């Protein structure tokens, strides 16, 4: 019985030690825009992105459910899910990355530009990205905030834009993100 108690106590300390090294959100914001001038805005936002950051090594991961993106126009949302993202077949988008030269001791209230590498998986395809900038800082309520933008080409993810609308939708999509992460 004493051995079981010791093992359980060690396991508890190990688990609590691991969780102290992580920051998490389930309400991260991701917005993408594929608009072109003079045509209807092609823009959507997802406010339920899950993101976790390991503060020991700067590794982070984000998970977005594709059907969680909201457009101003319901028909545009339907077309996005059925014809472009094919969200029934590819329900999630993932990003796994690492902040270069990450050091938790350098994070404070000052917004600081850092760089990261990683892979974006969407529509069944994976695209590596490297040396991209993001902003990191500590918010007033002790959240580590990661924010930034990146651009991706729809052809990298085998997304076909029909000729009928090809002049109304950009072939390059700008993704903007803001992840306020709380200590787990």
TrEMBL record:
**SUPFAM superfamilies assigned:** YceI-like
Instruction: State the superkingdom.
Output: Bacteria
Q: Domain (Lipid/polyisoprenoid-binding YceI-like): give its ranges.
A: 22-182
Q: Which InterPro entries match?
A: Lipid/polyisoprenoid-bd_YceI, TTHA0802/YceI-like_sf
Give the Gene3D superfamilies listed for this entry: Lipid/polyisoprenoid-binding, YceI-like
Q: Which organism is it from?
A: Mesoflavibacter profundi
Identification of the protein by name = YceI family protein
Which SMART domains does this chain map to?
Answer: YceI (SM00867)
